[in-house]
Amino acid sequence: MTSEKIEALLNPQIQKSIEQIKGLLRQIENKTIGFQKQTGLHCKKGCGACCLSPHVSTTFVEVLPLAIELWSNGQAEQILAKIERSPKQGQCVFYGPYPKIRTNGRCSIYSHRPGVCRLFGFSSTTDKYGKETLMTCKVIKETYPKDYAHAQKCFQDGLASASLSGYTLLVGSIDPQEGGRLYPINHAIKKALEYIGFYTKSFCFRNGKQNG
Question: Which residue segment(s) compose the domain that 152 sits in?
Answer without folding.
Answer: 3-41+55-91+108-207
